[in-house]
Design goal:
The structure is a homohexamer of 255-residue chains. Chain A folds into two domains: 2-98 and 213-241, 3-Layer(aba) Sandwich (Rossmann fold), CATH 3.40.50; 100-210, Rossmann fold. Chain A has nine helices and ten strands. Chain A has helices at residues 15-26, 50-69, 85-91, 99-110, 124-134, 153-156, 158-176, 192-201, 211-224; strands at 2-8, 33-39, 43-44, 74-77, 96-97, 114-118, 140-145, 180-183, 208-209, 242-243. In chain A, the strands form two sheets. In chain A, strands 2-1-4-5 form a four-stranded parallel beta sheet, sandwiched between helices. In chain A, β1 (2-8), α1 and β2 form a beta-alpha-beta unit. Chain A is globular, with a radius of gyration of 18 Å. Chains in contact: A-B, A-C, A-E, A-F, B-C, B-D, B-F, C-D, C-E, D-E, D-F, E-F. At the A-B interface, α4 and α9 of A face α4 and α9 of B. β3 (43-44) of chain B pairs antiparallel with β10 (242-243) of chain C, so a sheet runs across the interface. Chains A, B, C, D, E, F: InterPro entries: Asp/Glu/hydantoin_racemase, Asp/Glu_race, Hydantoin_racemase-like, Iso_Racemase_Enz_sf.
Chain lengths: 255, 255, 255, 255, 255, 255
């Protein structure tokens, strides 16, 4: 059985949130795969801008190196901003899945244009810049946000957040011509199915992409298909030239 | 167990070719899924240009309708030109996977730029036009071809064809900066693994995407993740307005 | 005198509609050219989505082959979706004009940006995808629709349809910065002149492109200038490899 | 009979060149149209860079105003750089055709990609910039040049120039994937037909666009179809605010 | 001390306006540089469309030649439309700065997207076309205008104009996602600072680019860094081939 | 006198290299500005891929915070990959200049297209991705590399490295149509002037942009013009939500 590690790029995560997060990937019912989860131990409580992304990126890459040494067959970065994705791909040889990249490419195949509904306006240019790098072309119609930060989600409560996400999704469909929706934050757990049904009820047959399980499906597909990232694109970095840093050692006895 | 149907958009296929084709998807070892295969019965012996694509497109869409009635949970179009993909998505509610679209989006996530190596120059503009529609942006670096039509592949023999594919792949890597390669024809069965190893031997750590199994993995992922194409994007066509045509009837007793 | 054939990609057309359609091209007053008209005999009563386009595409290509054998010097596809245009260009050596492509390139030279006003929302992504393939760049500002299908046009009556087209055209101009308008359906006969005058009256000096006569002018220009499509781009398909199909024979005695 | 004026944006033109130029448009055999020709009287002997274009642009616009007052129904700017095209469209209400714009849009409809073969490297960025403004998208594959200025063409002689143009055209086809060619200078008179035949002989069925007659066909099409440039795009300039300049007066008795 | 010449591409300028204009560049406090100012003497009282741009372009290029002969070390074209910029760069070897180009590239580095607020709608397509040529990519979010021509600015008075500019800037920020603003006319003197403060007060920390001083800073940077435009891109025009024109002579004794 | 800090994103730098680096900015002769230099103390000896960039990014951002507290009026990141640029702009209110971004925008104004000549192929996709985010459009013609890593530069010696840079620059000009060159590594100290002269000698009047002094000129221009990055684009991160991290405190007594 293959192990896939979910790296949550936050200092810590509540037990409840961790359970909800793992539920999203465990319900995929592929008995040949299992998932585990780690957090960073230090760093921010949420990822909402370039600073947070930059801070967590090297830590994610290092966690990916540990996962490879632990025998994991793929890692998933549990954040739509995909912090450290390119660095981690250079650092390891197992697949490194970013839910942002993965959800955008899935959404691109589901219809003509998609939108992201996310937390704060500060992620809007980040998503568009990522779409530019990922080669998403004209497929990203818009990014709309509910104006609530990750750490405030609980304050509002699920019901109110869901209503806000529905409101923004309807704008994406009716004003921006989106015909698919990406949930733009992996912290929106347990929302995708409800949102898709609610849109359906209002007459909009629009799939809602849940990024974390979509990333899990991509990890499974890559492992099963023996597909790996291009090491010509993501060449191994030279860690010997680093001073004052201790990286996870590849010749560890743990393996 | 879910059934996925591979629709080969040709008038017929030799038993050997059919066996080889099905081998490519059966080796994915996901025991919850099985595959079967149909051909069109009429039409061209190969797909090499817009005329061939146009001719087979409605026939593929009708085969997709039959597949849905037969209880299949997804269909795969067995051709890199994805003939009839949009029409079939409108005609049915199950996922319709085009290997061209699917391989391009997979390749886009494996590195910075990819190339396709294919049969004849006549497919080059078709692939680029499809990339434009699929939203592939800058990721498609080049399309290079071996100058041999599908029906001539046997004449040359596997060894010579493989050598030609290797030669073109090397040009894609060295001259066009591709760091991943898509095999640009589903008729290149049993080549991908060899080609990837050969490139590796020559110092190029470049993944080679095999389009049909990649499409199968996407079909599995969509079924498992309960992901469907957007019916807002691909609205049901009104078949009542057709005259002189008999479409597979949705209220058949076969279901 | 050169004969140009208008291929209407529908199963049939009322006498009145046929007369109105031919009026649009006959009033161009170039006495060196005449036009005739054929329908498909089978197929849909209207073209409103990818399925309809796919279904009619091969039939249009075959009608183009017949036209070439009948000595026509060009064919025009009487539909803004240009079904079968690329296939037909491969099948024959005479010019094959798609009003969608032709109107977009004409509109691109008339101002800075143009919009299409058309029937149903389902054509919007098709027009944008075509614009991408045709190389229209930034020139297509928007596609707006009246929400009425082709077969319902009569139900509403000309006056109401005209008012809807005017309303959408004004939005294209005022909200999307269009400075030219394309009538996005060849079924809008006898509207262009009225619409242009009405816009003028409201202070908007905006040309309204009528796609069918524009296509006729392009056909005339190409014949007169001895300009043909590139047979390097649109190579002759190999019809020998088709099974179970009878194509119009090029060595017919009709010629 | 409608009169169309060809404005050659040079200080002067030899009788022979003028005759050759007018031959290109007179052979179109549309007896309802005639052409005349004017030069600027002052200015450069050739247009080869932005300075030459800028210098002649206002003079072309003024000549267009005179043409409108003389009762011409369209003007054609006899230069692939289209100097003064936008200014002239603002200044008058009759169609103003630039052969560069017109040939690019025609070429865009003839195949998948086209190239221009022209005089000096200095026109290369100008053509690409114009393609960007004209909305030509990906259709312009390349600009290749023979390295001979307009005023030197005679020195080399037709035979040598033709051979150079053939050589560059072959490179466009074989290296840049062009399937149509635009002659990138209106000074290449009497070459297009020969070049197209020569390419055909070498196995390349590639149309060669002759820009001046293509512009003439566009002028004829626009007049016959009563199509005008958008005055919303090209608003009348306010000539009252000019000091020290005498423009052709619109209320002249000549009209 | 290096002299930089500001060329105002108008027939004339009031003393007050000239003073205000020079204030904008003189307050940069770089004591190693000084500025002077010339007008064209003939031509339009304002630049509002392609005709005005075309008319003034060659005159600006000639003024740049005079400036070079006068020993100026750079010239600045005092108009956001950058009339004659490319022609002038060909004509001289000293830096030629267009405030439109310069402000767009500065704004592109200040945030994710910028907008221009300008005078009349007729400049909108000009700014977008320039952005296309300048390579500004997705960075130009929108152009919004106050609907007041340059020569009418005085009629409304500074207070009313400022309020209009504020209103449009707010729309750029709130509706078009701009996070920087370019003042889209060099005639808006003394507004930038006020506008930036006003936006700040309303909660929008958005820089307002004042094009003329930004151009002056670019001129200073280029002189200090010994950076010149590429003479390979902007080759010297051949003035010998001009007839009936007297250009400033480079071998003047003035130098 | 304003202080500008150069942050070299390496663990350390030799005295000689530090001196050479500071020489590049000190020779700009603007007596109102002075420069100092810091290194990171930990981390890589060179920046050659995404991992190195990711590792240094947060450290650069923290050094920028320290610089702001030390009263610096701008910071420059001494690396063409601009590591941490966006994060640092969020963290501070003083200008943060990335030489990569800055050199590209300067080069974009010097001609029609520019190329970068740099160290290793691994930076090629990074530069293109950055160009996409920076909005550089079509202006970046190519990235060519000498195949020598930063830490190996010394091994080859200046003469050989210079010859390699010249060879690649010539290819950029002759094969990729570049008319300006950016030195694609801030480690190429003292090369730009020589390279520009050498190209000139060989007949190519092509400016060579030296990124670090260009960044210094931009920093000076922004300070002098009181231009700041958009805090609406680069919002202050919430450092309170970080655990296990000690950031430079803004209320330090050092200020």
């Amino acid at each position: 059985m293959a192990l896939i590690r979910v790296i949550t790029p936050l200092c810590s995560m509540s037990d409840e949130m961790a359970k909800d997060t793992m539920n999203e990937v465990n319900c995929l019912s592929d008995i040949q795969f299992s998932f585990d989860n780690v957090v960073l131990g230090v760093g921010p409580a949420s990822i909402e801008n370039s600073f947070d992304e930059a801070y967590t990126a090297p830590l994610v890459a290092i966690k990916a190196m540990e996962a490879e040494q632990d025998g994991c067959q793929a890692v998933i970065i549990d954040c739509m901003g995909d912090p450290g994705m390119h660095a981690a791909r250079e650092a390891v040889s197992i697949p490194v899945i970013g839910p942002g990249e993965c959800a955008m490419h899935m959404a691109a195949t589901l219809g003509h244009q998609f939108s992201c509904v996310s937390i704060l306006d500060s992620v809007r240019p980040i998503f568009f810049d990522h779409a530019r790098i990922y080669g998403i072309g004209h497929k990203l119609a818009s990014v709309r946000t509910i104006g609530v930060g990750v750490t405030e989600l609980e304050k509002y409560g699920a019901e109110q957040i869901n209503a806000m996400l529905l409101e923004q999704s309807l704008k994406c469909i009716q004003e921006d011509h989106a015909d698919s929706i990406i949930l733009g934050c992996t912290g929106f757990v347990g929302v995708a199915e409800w949102l898709q049904q609610e849109l359906e009820k209002q007459g909009f047959a629009v799939p809602v992409i849940n990024p974390l399980p979509t990333a899990a499906l991509q990890a499974i597909a890559m492992i099963r298909g023996k597909i790996r990232h291009s090491k010509r694109a993501y060449k191994k970095p030279n860690l010997q030239k680093y001073e004052g840093v201790k990286f996870p050692s590849p010749d560890t006895t743990k393996r």
